[in-house]
UniProtKB/TrEMBL annotation:
Biological process, per Gene Ontology: DNA double-strand break attachment to nuclear envelope; double-strand break repair
InterPro entries membership: BRCT_dom, BRCT_dom_sf, CellCycle_DNARepair_Reg
Annotated region described as Disordered, given as residue ranges: 488-547, 568-619
Protein known as: BRCT domain-containing protein
One Pfam family from the record: RTT107_BRCT_5
Protein source organism: Trichoderma harzianum CBS 226.95
Compositional bias annotation for Basic and acidic residues: 582-604
Length: 849
């Protein structure tokens, strides 16, 4: 029966888009899951995962905002291999081996042992499985490692004879990984010629590169490459809907502050000046009123290094993930003040990182080692420094010691085994930067209490953090890991309801532990009736500085200036009421008359008393940024438009131009215009333009939820669900087509520019394909691509003879690059942009041969 329904018949699955899991792969996997009985759960309107309705979350990283929520609810988070392995086995695979948590160091390792003593075999397999690995009785297609002492064992001989592609390693590799609690490279342990047995431990070894430290080697970086405003750069959409406060303890120049503000605002975020209003605080130190208030309210708190990391990578990551992305203690870690620490065998970013980390701890970093040094941190114990240190009474440890001292905010004993372990042919620089913070430890030391002033939302977030911590392993290499488990929906003791909370219930950690099982069938919790998510209304910006008010005024008139310049350049026919040269002349005439009146008034100032100047009331803060399309009210009536725009702005509604950040997209109905599709890519709430008309008629703000756009006819015509499209767009954040190359002929109907705007708004690589275009795809073979199926590459084209001549050469270029050529009509791009889903139908193909 289970097979008839499908192996995922009881699964409600949500995907997390990321650089490691592109939307095009999500689309393919969603189809596979649906065909096998699963239900894919769409994001809420605000872009969040409906945790109460999912049984599994598929993600190739733990860097997504609701990871902590998944830990609290014990929802399994698995990578994409879980799906493929389950399909190949025709049954659901266990979730533990497919956790994306980097602390599960043997995730995706499938090992079998050959020619080992029974005790050693059981120890290796038990520890491997505890840290995410799997056991295989024999060497099969899915086996990744054989643990053996030689290549002569029948298991190994038979496997190699069949062309098995896995690795045969000495048991020493597993032992060294267990001792360090980190996964090191197995290269020196590979049979038949393991380096650890052939070479002397003191022989020279290259210093490895390490991606963990990119953008995270300093807590206060001095430089970041920012756009100068002249060159186009895609918006940093990671700031979409974020309210960011730049802390008062930051030492940044006005020029840098303005550059950061421009990037944040262009990315859809806002800068605020009140810690109560912000969602994210950027500060330097772990003290002060702003830091304590924001942390107690469970808001995101990071430093400049973290902010720069988000700007450069445009992908969200927790500021607790990397040690130097979180504010530093002003006076260091207790006990480090009198230490003098030097390092050896680390290079590049790792050396800079350790220097900054040592200083952040409060110790003195020295470039050379002298007799008054107290500690030597080394990646290998084979340098001259390492040999001299014991004679001088200097403690020798690896970097794990200083990382864990900093992460746990107290000095750790130096005699713990993992701090003194140095694998013979490994430079430990390859595993540096993998240690993270424990939020509860930070709270105990730097921002305890605050419950009496917490908002209901903060209280709920605090309960989620505590539940996640209680559900995690409390010690060992997997400390902090939660392997998802969900209690039965009918268990009344597995949830706790917060008083006066409008949010979903939170699992009780104690109850979860009590009912913890290895594997369970899960009954999804259905959503309560009523609105799934209320649209948040931003707080008013009372008490803001003069600078902020000035920026509001500038942002208000910017659109008017742009429209005026556009009208000046526009050629109009004689007799038109406004536009072109006549518009400019009228504007100049009005200006001259105004100046004349001003002079006349000045001349009469001696004869009569000048009336007191009436001060203009300050504008309210911008509560709604709206892009309008298909709006006919202002057609041919520029004065009416100007008046209406001012009325709307006085109510906190700003009509913005296309390409600018927006909270709402207003249209009379669903349209496939460039403006509509480009704005949709940002994930704004789509409302009916009658909302604007109603506000103008009544002079009062309306409840925006009453004006959510409904257009069943257009949705049926374009095969979309508008609400789903918006939720997908919020999740993708303008990266729907990231990594997908889209070519376009320069002779396409209506020109390629409009398609470029739509493609680039969704993150695609857009290129014009001409008769003399060189090859844009590097020739590769299936073997070079690890025998992966060819990825599609698209050519938007018409059916003119001139365009058809390009098709054979385009196909040849794609096939040489091991890609699947698809010559399609532009409707394919419009369909994808409207659905916010990478989908394909053969009806879009122009060349069906």
């Amino acid at each position: 029966m289970a097979d008839a329904e499908g192996i995922f018949s009881e699964c409600f699955i949500a995907f997390v888009p990321s650089a490691q899991l592109a939307p095009k792969l999500i689309s393919s996997l969603s189809t596979i899951l649906t065909e096998n009985g699963a239900t894919t759960v769409e994001y809420r309107r605000d872009g969040s995962i409906p945790i109460d309705r999912v049984t599994h979350i598929v993600s190739n990283t733990i860097d997504f905002p609701q990871y902590i929520d998944s830990q609290a609810y014990m929802i399994p988070v698995v990578n994409t291999h879980w799906i493929t392995i389950s399909i190949s086995r025709r049954k659901q695979a266990q979730v533990r081996p497919f956790s994306p948590d980097p602390r599960m160091i043997f995730s995706e390792v499938v090992v079998t042992c050959a020619d080992l003593p029974q005790m050693d075999k059981e120890s290796i397999l038990g520890a491997t499985m505890a840290l995410g690995g799997q056991e295989s009785k024999d060497v099969g297609r899915l086996t990744t490692h054989v643990c053996a002492l030689s290549m002569d064992h029948p298991k190994v001989v038979v496997a190699m004879g069949k062309g098995w592609k896995g690795k045969v390693v000495l048991p020493h590799w597993f032992d060294d990984c267990f001792k360090l609690g980190k996964r090191i490279d197995e290269g020196p342990y590979l049979l038949p010629d393991p380096e650890i047995l052939k070479k002397d431990p003191d022989e020279e070894l290259d210093i490895p590169s390490n991606n963990n430290l990119v953008g995270a080697s300093s807590a206060n970086p001095e430089f970041i490459s920012l756009s100068d405003g002249n060159s186009a750069r895609p918006p940093v959409t990671v700031f979409q809907d974020k309210l960011i406060l730049l802390g008062s303890d930051l030492k940044i120049t006005p020029r840098l502050e303005k550059a950061l503000k421009d990037i944040i605002v262009y990315g859809g975020g806002r800068l605020v000046e009140d810690v109560e209003e912000c969602t994210t605080l950027i500060c330097q130190y772990r003290d002060g009123e702003q830091y304590v208030k924001a942390s107690q309210a469970c808001k995101e708190v990071g430093n400049l290094s973290w902010l720069y990391f988000l700007i450069v990578h445009n992908d969200w990551t927790s500021p607790l993930r990397r040690l130097l992305h979180y504010p530093i203690p002003r006076n260091g870690i207790p006990g480090f003040k009198d230490m003098r620490i030097t390092v050896s065998n680390y290079g590049g970013e790792a050396r800079i990182y350790l220097e900054n980390l040592i200083k952040a701890c409060g110790a003195e970093f020295t470039k050379t080692m002298k007799a008054d040094n107290t500690h030597l941190i080394t990646a290998r114990n084979s340098s001259e420094k390492c040999k001299a240190a014991p004679e001088w009474g200097i403690t020798v440890v690896n970097h794990l010691w200083v990382e864990e001292c900093y992460a746990k905010c107290e000095i750790q004993p130096v005699n713990i085994k993992k701090y003194n372990h140095f694998p013979p042919r490994t430079n430990l620089g390859e595993i540096i930067g993998q240690t993270s913070f424990n939020e509860s430890r930070l709270r105990d030391l730097f921002y305890p209490g605050g419950e009496e002033s917490m908002s209901p939302r903060a209280k709920r977030k605090r309960k989620i953090l505590e539940a996640a911590e209680d559900n995690a392993y409390s010690h060992g290499p997997a400390e902090g890991v939660v392997i998802g488990e969900v209690a039965h929906g009918g268990d009344s003791d597995t949830t706790m309801q917060e008083d006066n909370s409008e949010e979903d219930s939170i699992p009780s950690a104690a109850a979860a532990k009590k009912g913890r099982r290895t594997t369970q069938q899960v009954t999804p919790v259905r959503a309560r009736p009523g609105k799934e998510n209320m649209t948040p209304v931003a707080n008013s910006s009372g008490g803001r500085s003069a600078k902020a008010k000035a920026m509001d005024v500038l942002s208000t008139i910017a659109s008017d200036i742009a429209l005026y310049e556009k009208e000046k350049k526009r050629n109009t026919k004689p007799g038109t009421p406004f536009g072109g040269k006549r518009a400019a002349e009228l504007a100049e005439k009005e200006k001259a008359e105004s100046a004349k009146k001003s002079t006349s008034h000045k001349d009469d100032a001696d004869d009569e008393e000048r009336p007191a100047k009436k001060s203009r009331p300050s504008l309210p803060g911008v509560e709604m940024r709206v892009i309008l399309t298909g709006f006919t009210r202002w057609v041919g009536n520029q004065n009416k438009e100007d008046q209406d725009r001012r009325k709307l702005r006085d109510l906190g509604i700003q009509i913005v131009l296309e390409g600018q950040p927006c909270d709402y997209l207003a249209a009379p109905h669903v349209v496939r215009t460039v403006k509509f599709l480009c704005a949709l890519a940002r994930g704004p709430t789509v409302i009916s333009s009658t909302f604007i008309e109603k506000v103008l008629e009544t002079g009062k703000l309306q409840d925006v939820d009453d004006f959510i756009l409904k257009d069943s006819e257009a949705e049926s015509k374009y095969d979309i669900d508008l609400e789903r499209s918006v939720s997908r767009a919020k999740a993708h954040r303008g990266k729907l087509l990231r990594g997908i190359p889209i070519f376009c002929t320069d002779k396409i109907k209506n020109g390629p520019n409009s398609y470029r705007l739509i493609a680039e708004a969704n993150g695609a690589m857009f290129m014009i394909y001409r008769a003399r275009s060189g090859s844009n795809i590097k020739p590769t073979t299936a073997e070079q691509d690890n025998f992966a199926p060819p990825e599609p590459v698209y050519l938007l084209s018409g059916s003119t003879p001139e365009e058809k001549q390009l098709w054979p050469r385009f196909k040849d270029m794609a096939e040489k690059g091991h890609m699947e050529p698809r010559v399609v009509s532009p409707d394919w791009l419009l369909d994808v942009a409207m659905a916010q889903q990478v989908r394909f139908d053969k009806k879009f193909l122009l060349d069906t041969e």
